[in-house]
Each structure stands twice: as C-alpha cells, then as structure tokens.
Amino acid sequence: MTALPQTTAKKLGLVIDLDTCVGCQACATSCKEWNTQGYSAPLTDEDTRGADPHGPWLNRIHGYEVEDTTGKDSRVVHFPRSCLHCETPACVTVCPTGASYKRAEDGIVLINPDTCIGCKLCSWACPYGAREYDVQEGVMKKCTLCVDRIYNENFEPEDRQPACVKACPTGARHFGDLGDENSAVSQLVKERGGFDLLPEMGYKPTNKYLPPRAKRDTPQAGIEALPKGDGSAMDRLFKLADRLLSGN
Amino acid sequence: MASEPAVALSPKTWDEIKTTTCYMCACRCGIKVYLKDGTVTYIDGNRDHPVNKGVICGKGAAGIKQHYSPGRLSKPLIRVGERGSGEFREIEWEEALQTATTWLGDVRKSDPKKLAFFTGRDQSQGLTGWWATQFGTPNYAAHGGFCSVNMAAAGLYTFGGSFWEFGEPDWKHTKYFLLFGVAEDHGSNPIKAGLGKLKKRGAKFVSVNPIKTGYSAIADEWVGVRPGTDGLFVGAIIHELLNAGQIDGDYLNRYTNSPWLVIDNKGAADHGLFARDEDGSTLVWDAHKKAPAPTTDHDAARALMGRFTLPDGRTVATSFQLIAERYLAPENAPDAVAERCGVPADTIRRIAAELAHVAFKETVTLDVPWTDFTGRRHDKMIGRPVAMHAMRGISAHANGFQTCRAIHLLQIMLGTIDTPGGFRYKAPFPRPIPPHIKPTGKPDQIWPNEPLPGPPLGFVTGPEDLLLAADGTPQRIDKAYSWDAPIAAHGMMHMVITNAAKRDPYGIDVLFMYMANMSWNSAMNIPDTLKHLTAKDATTGDYVIPKIIYSDAYASEMVHYADLILPDTTYLERWDCISLLDRPISEADGPADSIRQPVVEPERDVRAFQTVLLDLGARLKLPGMTTPEGNARYPGGYPDYIVNHERAPGVGPLAGFRGADGTQSGKGAPNPNQLQAYIENGCHWFYELPDEHKYFKHVNKGYLDWATGFGLIGKPEPIIHQLYCEPLQKFRLAAEGHGAIQPPDGHRARIIEAFDPIPFWYPPFEGDMIDEAAFPMHAVTQRPMAMYHAWGSQNSWLRQILGRNWLYIAKERAHSLGIADGDWVTVTSHHGQIKGQAKLMNGVNPDTVWTWNAIGKRSGTWGLKKDAPEAKQGFLLNHLISELLPEREGGYRFSNSDPVTGQAAWYVLRVRVEKSSVQSNISSPQFPTLKNLGVGQ
Amino acid sequence: MNPAYSVIFFTTASGAGYGLLALLGLTAPTLGQSASPVFVLVSMIIALGLITAGLLSSTLHLGHPERAWRALSQWKTSWLSREGVAAILTYPFALAFGLTWSGLYPAPDAIAPLGAITAIMSFITVFTTGKIYASLKTIRAWHQPLTVPVYLFFALSSGAALFLALSAIFMRDAGSVSTVAPVTILALALLKFLYWRAIDQATRDRTMGNATGLGPNVRQWEVPHTTKNFVQREMGFVVARRHAKRLRALFFFLLLCAGLLELLAVRMPLVAVLAFGITFLAAWVERWLFFAEGEHVVTLFYGNPQT
Ligand SMILES: Nc1nc2c(c(=O)[nH]1)N[C@H]1C(S)=C(S)[C@@H](COP(=O)(O)OP(=O)(O)OC[C@H]3O[C@@H](n4cnc5c(=O)[nH]c(N)nc54)[C@H](O)[C@@H]3O)O[C@H]1N2
Ligand SMILES: Nc1nc2c(c(=O)[nH]1)N[C@H]1C(S)=C(S)[C@@H](COP(=O)(O)OP(=O)(O)OC[C@H]3O[C@@H](n4cnc5c(=O)[nH]c(N)nc54)[C@H](O)[C@@H]3O)O[C@H]1N2
Ligand code: SF4
Ligand code: SF4
Ligand code: SF4
Ligand code: SF4
Ligand code: SF4
Ligand SMILES: [Mo]
Fold it and tell me: Which residue does chain C place closest to B2, by CA atoms?
C-alpha cells in the first residue's frame, strides 16, 4: 500500500501555536499514554530504572533559543514535533511491505503493526524524525493522529480529538481539516501566517506551525508617557484627593 | 494493489472509567481513570471539573507510572541498623501501630510538645492540624513555611486573600497581566489555560523573572529582574504612578485604609498606630467638618491625603499620606533603582504608563448591578483590567513578605482587586484581615494528656500573640511565632531538624513526619541535615532526635533516616478530601471542593495515612477521635471522618451535598451518602455564585451576607484593605522598647527594620552578610513543568524527559568565566560547594545561574538503579543553601528566612561559578548509595 | 547516520558476491569449458554464499524477520522492495548458470546467455541497493548521482579482486579480469574522489532555521528528552571531520595498495589474495564512512545548525 493516494478527501492534521506553547509536555505524555494502550502495538520502554531510560514517543517537545540580531536578546521557543501527515511523504513510498500507508479518506499516515517488518527505512526517509522504532515490538511507531480517538464512538463527540489536543492546557494545539479552507484550523493558519517545516523537502506537510508573535516591549502608540517628576507630585495627589471630596 | 488495512476506529480499550482527583501535583485537577481488567490504562482530564475543565498536564497524564512505580513501599518497616544504613525489618501493621502508639503515648503523658508533627506536602491539613490540636502539641505545621507563607501572609495581612492558589487573575477580562516569579505554581493547569486565554484575546502578558523559559518564554514582554530586587522595580512603578496621580482614589478611599489616620508621635508608644476614638473605632478625617470621624461613618468626606491635628492635640496623617511620602522619595525613582534591579529606567516608566493606561483608559464594564457594604447601589461593575500574580520568585526571598505587600499595594492603588479584569479572590477568601484565628501553644495552653485549646497555627496581631516561654524564648521547636519569625503563619518546617538536633530551644522525643523529603530536596543544607538526623548524645549514646516516625508512599531519601515507616497508598488507592477548611480548589466564580476515591485496591500491605492517623488517635484516646465509651469515633477511617466529622455544627470537611438528604451546601447535617453523591457528580462539587456576587466580594454586601450564611466568614463585614499594616507597627514599637513583651536585644534592629507597616525594599539578608565580590552571582531553581519535586524521577516516562539537570548560565557571562557549553563547573556559596554541568543560554539575567529543582537524587533511592543519571549527573542547590544565616550580633544565627514570616529563603543564594579542574562526568557531592527499599527491588 | 555493522556487512559482502557473480557470468563464455568444475563450483558457492550471508544478515536485523517475505510486495514504489525482488530473481538464474557452467547439468549453449542474465541481474540488484540510498532526499550525501555508480563499482572491484584471488588459488589465468580489476579500482578511486568532492562542495542550505521556521539565529536550547532517542541514535551519528579525513586517506591508500598488488599479481598470482583482503577492508572503510558522513536532515531538529 505504498503508493500514495492521488488526493485525499480530507487533510486532517494539527496546527501548533508556537506563541502559546509553554513546553509543559502534556501533549507528549498524553500521547505516550494513549498510544500505549490504543491503536497499534503498545509503546514500550527500555531500561526504565537505569542509566539510559528511553523508548519510542510519538510527540516530543524541543526547546530552541532564538537570538535577535544583536545576539543579546533572545526568546525560548518550545516546539512540539510529531508526524506532520505529509501529502507526499517518502516515508510511505520507501516502505517495502506496504505497512506504511496514507489513508485516502483523511490523509492520515499510518503504519500497520501487523505487516511492518521493522526495516527502519521509513524512519530514514522522514525528514522530521517522526518515526521511532520500538525495539520490543519490532515495528516502527509514529503519530496516528489518534485515528482511534477521532472517530471513536465510545467517546463523547467533544472528546473525539487527538489525545494531545485534548490534553494541551494552553490550547496551543488545534486539530481539524486543513483541506477545507473554511475550517477553523485553516482560518487560523491564514490569520497567523502558519508555516510548513522544511518546505524545500517537498513532502508537503499537512500540519502547520503558527509563528511566535512579535514582542511588545517597546512604546506602543496611543499610550502616553507619564509626566516626568517636577516636584509637584504631592500637589497633584492633593488635588486628586480634593476631587474625590467634591465628587462625594 | 491491496486496499488499506482495516483500522479499528472505535476500540473500547477500557471496561470502566472512574473519576477522581489527580495528585501528581497540588493543583488537584479532576481526572478520569480508565481501567481494563482492574489495571489503570489511561488517565485524562475531566471535562466537567472546575479546576482543569478537561485538560491535563505532563505529570497528570503520566500518573499511571507513578501509581505503578518501582519506588513504592510495600510494608511497614522498623529500623534495625543505624539510621541511614537502610537496615529495616518488615513488620505487620499491628506492630507498627502499637509501636507508634507507645512512642506517642509516652510523649503525650509527659510533655506533648516533645512531639513535633510536621506534614510536608499534605492536602489534609484539616485533619492533621486538628489531630495535633487533639494531641496537645503546638509543634505542628505543614509545608507552607518553606513554601510560600510570604505570599499567604502578605496577602492575608493586606487584602484578605492571597496569591498562591487562593486567588487568580480574571483570565476572562484581564487586558494586562503582570506575572512575578512564577515557573509553574500550584494552579498549574489553570495558569496555563489562563495564559492561553490571554493569548487568544491579545491581552498583554509581562513576565518579571530572571529566567525566560516556560511561561516567561511566551510573555509579550520579559523583565529580566535581578533576583531579590522586585521590590525596587515595583516601588519605582508606584513612584511613577503617584508622581502622575494615576491612582484609583475612589477605590482607595472607600475600600482601603488609605484615609485612616495614623498617629505621628515619634518615640511614643502610640506612634504609628491608628488613631481611635473612645469606642475603639479607627478614624478618618472629615474634610468638610474638619474633624475626625469614625471609619464606619460612610457619609464623612474622607480626606485621602493630609496631616491633621486631633482634638486631643495629637498629630495624625492619613495612611496614604505616609505611603505617598515613602514612594515619592527620590530613592524610589526609576533611575535610582534601575541598576540595582537590572531593569532599565525607561522600561519601568513605560510599564507604569501602560498599567495606568489599561487601568484607567481601558476599563471593563459588566452590566451587573451590585450593592456595596455601605448600601450604595452600583448599576455596573467597572473593572480596571490589570491583574498580577506572583509566587516563589517573590516568596522564596528573605524580603518576600514586604515585596509581596508592595505588589498588592500596586494592585490596590490601581483599584484592581476583585474587579472585572483584576485579581480575584477564591472562596473561602476574602476573609478578615488578618483572619481571626490566633496560634495556640503558650506555656499555659500545653498540658500532659490534654488537647490544645485551639489550633497550633493562626495569625498574630501583636507581640501579645507570640508563643513565647516565660523567659521569652520560643515555645515552638521551629521558633515560629517567636521574635525570630513573629508572623510565621505556616510554621517553619525547614528549621525543625536543625533546632531539634541542637536542642534549641529544647530537645524533642518524637519527630513524626508525613510526605516531606526532609533529608533531601526539601532540606536546606543537606550534609548537615544528615548529620543532625544521625547525631547521637555523647552521654547517653542515643540519637539526639530519639524517634522518627515517617509516612511516605515511596522509597524517598527520607525513608532511610526514619525509625518507623508507615507506608502510604498511592493517590489512586485512597479516599481524600480537598476541603474548603484546608487548601481549597475553589474558583473565582464560586466555592468548590472535591474528593479522591480509591479507583484501584492496593496489592501491597499499605494503608492510607489519614486512616492510620485516625487509628492512632483512637488508640491514644485523643478526645475528638474517641467516643465517650472509649471506642474509635471514626471506625471507618478517613472516609468515615470526611462524612461525619463536624468542625462546627453543620460544618464538615466537604461543603457539598450536606444535610440528611444531601440538598444543603456549606452548612448542614452530615449526609451518610455524601461520598456517593460526590462520586456521582464526578468527585467534585462547585457552587457558582450569582453574577452580582462574583466581583468586589470584599465589599459586596450581597456576597458578604451570603458568605456569612454559608459559613465562610463570621460576620458580614467589609474587608477593608490594609495598605498600612498596623500589626507590623506593634512589633516595631515593642522592638523600640514599648510594651511588656520585649524582644531580645539582638533582635531589635532587625525587627525595627523589617516590620515596617508600609511595604518597602531591603536587600535579602544573606546577600547583605557575605562578600558580594567573592560570591557575585545569584543561584535559583525553577520547577520543571513535567516533574513534581522528587516524585517525578521514579516515573519511567517523566524521567526520560528530565533525567538529570544542568546549571544554566548566561552565554556572555560563561564566556567571560572561560566556561563552555557542557563544561563541569563548581558552584560555591559561603556554605558549601557542588559540581554540575553547565549549559549556556541567553534568556537569563547575566548575574544569575539556575537549575531545575529537585532532579538530583541520592543513589539507590526511588526504586532507581544506582547509576541513574539523576544520581550521577544530577545535583541540588540545596547543599549550598544554609538553613542558618552567618552569625549576627552576639553570635546568634538567625534562620535563613524572611524575618517577618519565617519563610525559607531558598533563593537568597549567592555563589561563585568556576570551571572545575576535574571534568569527569559526575556531579558532586556524591553520597553513599542507599539500599533500595522500593518494590522495584 | 549510524554505521551499523550489520548493514555494512550486508552491503560489502553482497556487493562482492554480486560483483563476483557478474564477472563469472560475463567471463564464462571466454573461459568456456576450460574452467575447471571445482573452480566454478567454489566460485559460485563463494559468490552466492556472500550474497546469502549478506541478505540473511540484513533480514536478521529486522524487527520481524519472519515477515521478511512481505518486503517483496511493494516493488512498484519501493527500492528496498525492488532490491529484494531482484535479489531473489537472481538466484534461479545464478543457480542455472552455475549448474550448466560447472557441467553438472550439461547445456553448453545455455552458459553464455545464462551468464549474461546472471550478470545483468547482479547489476540490477546492486543498482537497486544503491538506489535505496540514493533516493533518500533526507540525506544529502546519499541523494546524488554518484551514489549508485559507487555502489556498482564497489561491487565490481571487490568482485574482481575476489575473482583474481580465486583464480590465483586455483592457479588459473584470470584472463581479462587481470586488467579489469585494477581498472575498476582506479575507476572507484576516481568516483569516490568525485563523490567526496561533491559532498564537500554541496551547499549545506538546509538549516535549523528553516527546519523550525524560527529564522537564522536559532539554536538548540533543550533536547526533548535527557537520554538519546531512536532518531538520535539512528540518525544522529556524526563523525569528526578530522577523523573522516584520515579515514578517507586510509581508503585511498588501501585502494592504491590493492591496485598495485593486483598489478603485481600478474607476476605473482597469490598476492591477489592479499589484494582482495585489502579491497574488502577498503570497502568496509568506505561503507562505514558512507554512513558516518551521511548527515540526516532530522539532525537539524537536534542541534545541528545546517546540513
Ligand atoms: N533548592 C530548592 N529547594 C526547594 C525548593 C526550591 O525551589 N529550591 N522548593 C521548596 C518547596 S516550595 C517545597 S514545597 C519543597 C518540597 O519538598 P518536599 O515536600 O520534600 O517534596 P516532594 O519531593 O514532593 O516530597 C514529598 C514526599 O512525599 C512523598 N509522597 C508522594 N506521594 C505520597 C503519598 O501519596 N503519600 C505519602 N505519604 N507520601 C507521598 C514523596 O515520596 C516524598 O518523599 O521543596 C523545597 N525545596
Ligand atoms: N510541575 C511542577 N509544579 C509544581 C511544583 C513542582 O515541583 N513541579 N511544585 C509546587 C510547589 S510546592 C510550589 S511552591 C509551586 C511553586 O511554583 P513557582 O512559584 O512557579 O515556583 P518556582 O519554580 O520556584 O519558580 C520561581 C520562579 O521565580 C523566578 N525567580 C527567582 N528569583 C526571583 C526574583 O527575585 N524575582 C522574580 N521576579 N522571579 C524570581 C525563577 O526564575 C522561577 O521562574 O509550584 C507547585 N507546582
Ligand atoms: S512527518 Fe515523516 S513520518 Fe510523517 S508523513 Fe511526513 S515524512 Fe512521513
Ligand atoms: S519499518 Fe515498517 S513501516 Fe517502516 S519501511 Fe520498514 S516495513 Fe515499512
Ligand atoms: S495526534 Fe495522537 S498520536 Fe499524534 S501526537 Fe497527538 S496524541 Fe500522539
Ligand atoms: S501540551 Fe500544549 S503547551 Fe504543553 S507542550 Fe504540548 S503544545 Fe505545548
Ligand atoms: S496540574 Fe497537577 S493536578 Fe493537574 S493534572 Fe497536572 S499534575 Fe495533576
Ligand atoms: Mo512549595
């Protein structure tokens, strides 16, 4: 199933607001948690009590520091990264078994845990580091866009969203159909100048990132500076006190 | 080509979902726990819950791994080897309880205060405090003294509410949010959700913090203040606002003590106290009548400013006159403070102008009529949409109380407290200033086999309320409510071990602790703490602290230093109540409380501590826990107590579903089905106030009447903000020699300085007492969002995220010190030295280094293997922080705390950072590996 | 990229095997029946043995070797699948060729066409192997025109060295391969020289800035997790420049030795065994470097400023 669908009916994906993400890891642990018991084989861990604990995670929060041109000022940007459900991803086409595929219905890129042979080639083909190999299960893992939640009839309709989106306390993660330009996510991308990661790779990511907004640490129009000290402050306060009295 | 494989789109991966309350941190969100075949498989946020409204955080979602941690304890233990050797014997509960009963019973019948009962990160202080009272020891406190009592006390003595988790910004309406020194806070998810809301609305968010990560990273403006100097920054803003007359005079005049008259009679015993009439009423100056009037005279033309002469000839000034004089002084001008606080004067001026602009030109109006306490009807609620919030970046400094008061002063001058867009109270606040509970534990209040006549903790209003022995020395083991820390409203847990080991003021017999890792990350000066815990009396050969009982759920560092271990359940295995009598989870829109229900049964031989405590109480025949016939009053344990205990008639731990039929709220007879009612309601209860009660609660007649009926406050009286804090002045007068109760001479200067009734700034002590040139940098910690103190490291998911810590340092400063990214560096304070690995960054005040808190572990603990990176590369600043200040007058060593409240001054740490000559991949100090006591062994 | 020994072994061993197979296939008509059956059998066994060992090692490192057969299904899109198909298709031809040539199944007329087909299949298989790497856009050092030729010439040169060695052992004349072998080595050296020049000169215009969208002045502040994850372990391997330079020099030196020894082998046939050993060593060095110098674009998210 390695051939990509020509088009997909929907382009489901995430929009992540880098201006709002505080790096709390809620989306990462919620994802780990859901996907340890949800679709696909469970996510396992190595050396849980020892010196080198690690295991596959489908969503990771990076931290970057962006300097301004003077090199003096900077901002920390917390940067969640998971599968972007690309429109033309080589991770799918390189797969020799067909375990990797992109759903024609909604564009979600998935791995079939029953047919994956664990050759890892797809992870080499992904520019975004979204595929992580599970040693104990012997198969590749990646974000499923919570395909087993978003359509899950055992959930209340408002809970039919990815675990990470539901978890995010700041509301920095948005889920929806980026193929529909009227959807809330598409509107958000338009308003906020949502962008693609590594567009030059040609994978056409579905997920979009919203850039951090400009700082507001300079004088703003319309806000008057307060008067300079001229020794008359006490008088001013007395006048204010008098005004209060006359207002009585 | 094969078609797409069929994916199960609607798997039901659980067979049951139970609601309960998270305890991966103290935020106490509502959670849904998914169970499959009796195993916890998934935890997510409960959408109906008032605290988190469905979201969860990084820790909460990893709760499974906490619950199934390899560090869990599994059986009561009694020490058989030396303390710290890890030699324990497993015992049955009966033996454990018998032993504890004997130890405790012996203390109680000789001198109950020789039991020190301290309960750390307790969420059942309603129970534990009451237990201490019934036992008869004043030596009780929870963790507030080392956490954020500065926040609590400064707020409760100023406006009857507080930062911490007892109030919150009006996230819905705020247009300008100023956040001081917060990395995470107790209102973890609410703050994150709130910031998200601000972002959505485009409100401006300014973070004042030496470090620009986490919340500060998404701030619209970052003010990289130098640690300990926020008071200067805030003072300069106040200076600017006063200078421009940009204050809410009406709010000040009506709702604060600004117009109250203060006696100006330097040197006399009444100097600085409020002038009072013969009925004892405080006074204002009626400008029309040109005469004093009682503050209760609402028709008086109150002068906000001015100095007057009373008919009896004494001169007085309004509080506000004194405040204005203080803050208009040139030393509070932006230019005068800019260098010291590390914030450019222009920035201070601009922020002051922005605050004034938003407060006065961008008011928020809600079409909600309300009536104030004077009976005046307001047809709208007009809000000044500036909100502030502060936490440990302010409180963990030795000047935190006064700095926090300054922040409240700023908010109140702008007229923002509990107005739309401002900082809002959460029930049970606002309360009278300060709350009308006095601490108990004076010599005549402690008797063998008798309960205390009142609770150990409370709020003093003058020297007469201090808990002093006849000779003036402290009554409490932690020296709270003594001249060392008169307003230590939450006790001083951080001093207990040191004081007990030094028998200063006296030795104790039993140290009983619950849920506090006092031999590690919640200790200052760990090396000496370990010595104190194992110190022996030279003559008897016994331990100086003879017996230590400890309840923990996990194999923490502290477990090794106790004699009797009472293993607790995990948070998913027990009943709990999050009570309005304790540390509530209320919303600004109304009171709320909640419960924890056991969602799984423990498969280990562990018992819920609260139930154990009630059992011990019954065995000790403590009055509240025993029936007249001498039987256990709460044989059903904690859930029995939660439902049936009444603190006052009709008032119990839970406010919801009271009365025999469960229809009453607040007050009502115990309801036998109360817990079931909570479970059916998602384990929580919330009462939404009507719109006209939601704001101006401190002066809102309707609200005050309701709150009185509900039992939150005693009388429907307004809560007038105390900008000028008279109780402080009373201590000052004593220090100046007035009155019968006098501080020791060595304390006088310190009291006179710190107990200023008007907020002010002074350099935090340690910085003042050591050579700044030798220790030029500040060192602070931050809470990592995905870790809760020490608990997180046993969590196999969370420790992948943060398995060790680094020392972060400003890039340029590191370069000038010859330190490169990844170098191992030594950090030296006047007290000790540690080694850690450096990481360079930009977003940190250049004079500050920092690290994540409580990541460093002692090898062999928490169910981890001995070479875990937490132990081998991780480190704590705690080794560097002395619990005692350098010697002062007469050789006395004060505790490293705020002189007013006794708040532990974790962040008053000056250090020197150098590249280490040894670049091996290991942190120091390293302590001997402990024997692993968790189930993972 | 992490230079995993199983993958290095697979590509070098099967490369030599296919090279040898191809040369046997091509030279069979000229050597004709003069080739002794023992030589033919041993050579064929060695060629197929190397190929099989390589293939086995590559399946053993799979998470689910028992599912390896599934890898044959996606030949329409996946070079890895095509490699599998080509490798497997080569076997029947190679076996038939071996049987006829060795005379075990006497069909002299079939030798030349079967040899040719076997050679072509070997070529295709190595080509697909090269393509697996060359098609990965994520690794600039691999995604370029010289990758496939290098793979092909490696197979050929190590196959030729092996051919010479076997001929020497069996004391047979290696015929045209005596000239082909040093020529392939020369060609390989040239290709590899060009390859390295190309990757050294390639503009490394993928930056952390456009990976993260955070502009030119971005740098890593915190890694997502304290310990290394799969992606960092698999894709994050970097070799120090100094180290790479030395290994490149070693590689050329080894090739030079191998080439000279092959020339010498015309006089002293047995040195061809040494020549093969050195060629194989050179292949290991080259292949290790091929991975180690393959900088994956994902490293941009993990602190690498540009690739
Ligand atoms: N350098 C530095 N030091 C600090 C601070 C800082 O900022 N910097 N912060 C200070 C502050 S504010 C605080 S509050 C303290 C916190 O310090 P602690 O209160 O010591 O922190 P915890 O790690 O939460 O440890 C509490 C203990 O509770 C145990 N525990 C967890 N769950 C349960 C349970 O369900 N039942 C029982 N019985 N026990 C349980 C844990 O195993 C642990 O041993 O640290 C203080 N120390
Ligand atoms: N995830 C998580 N949540 C927690 C906890 C936890 O361990 N983990 N612990 C809980 C507990 S017990 C507490 S007390 C709260 C505390 O919550 P916070 O108040 O957020 O505590 P800290 O992490 O100590 O953050 C203090 C902040 O103050 C800054 N700071 C230090 N000195 C100064 C100063 O002089 N001025 C200013 N303006 N800022 C300064 C530091 O850089 C840091 O960002 O968090 C609670 N919530
Ligand atoms: S992000 Fe990677 S794994 Fe996901 S679709 Fe794109 S290329 Fe494939
Ligand atoms: S690891 Fe699995 S999904 Fe990835 S390419 Fe190989 S078979 Fe396909
Ligand atoms: S959509 Fe689901 S699988 Fe993907 S990152 Fe979010 S939680 Fe993980
Ligand atoms: S949950 Fe939201 S705020 Fe937290 S790290 Fe993920 S995206 Fe960022
Ligand atoms: S904020 Fe605290 S209580 Fe809420 S989900 Fe997170 S860990 Fe649990
Ligand atoms: Mo705390």
Answer: C73
> Whole domain around residue A33: which residue ranges?
12-218
Question: Which residue of C74, C76, C81, C221 to mutate against B (max B Cβ within 10 Å)?
Answer: C221
Query: What is the H or E stretch that residue B424 is in?
Result: strand B423-425
Specify whether the CB–CB gap between B255 and B159 falls below 8 A: no
Secondary structure, 3-state, B577-610: EECCCCCCCCECCECEEEEECCCCCCCCCCCCHH
pLDDT digits (tens, 9 = 90+) for B519-563: 999 999 999 999 999 999 999 999 999 999 999 999 999 999 999
Ligand 1 in contact with B177 (CB < 6 A)? no
Q: What does residue A100 show for φ and ψ, rounded to 5 degrees?
A: -85, 130
B11 and A54 within 8 Å at the Cβ level: the answer is no
Which of B2, B800, B841 comes nearest C227 by C-beta? B800
Burial of B244 (0-12, 13-18, 19+ CB in 10 A): buried
The two three-digit tokens of residue B922, written as one number: 């290991």
Q: How far is B39 from chain A (nearest CA, A)?
A: 11
Q: What is the CATH number of the domain that holds A136?
A: 3.30.70.20
List all residues of chain B from 470 to 529 with a beta carbon under 8 Å from chain C.
none
The answer to whether residue A229 sits within a structural domain is: no
Total count of domains within chain A: 1
Task: Return the domain boundaries, chain C.
Answer: 5-62+70-211+232-302
Q: Classify residue A237: in a domain, yes or no.
A: no
Q: What is the CA radius of gyration of chain B?
A: 27
Tens digit of each residue's pLDDT (9 = 90 or more) over C226-245:
999 999 999 999 888 899 99
Residue pLDDT, tens place only, B862-907: 999 999 999 999 999 999 999 998 887 677 889 999 999 999 999 9
C-alpha A113 to ligand 4 mean position (Å)? 9
Confirm or reject: Cβ of A21 under 6 Å from ligand 6: yes
Cβ contact B800–C225 (<8 Å): yes
Q: Nearest CA to CA, how far is B60 from chain A (Å)?
A: 8
Cβ-contact B500, B477 below 8 angstroms: yes
- Decide if A243 is inside a domain: no
ipTM more than 0.85?
yes
Residue A223 lies in a domain: no
**Domain covering C5-62+70-211+232-302, topology:** Formate dehydrogenase/DMSO reductase fold (1.20.1630)
Chain C: give the shortest CA distance to residue B63, in Å: 18
Number of neighbouring beta carbons within 10 Å of residue C70:
22
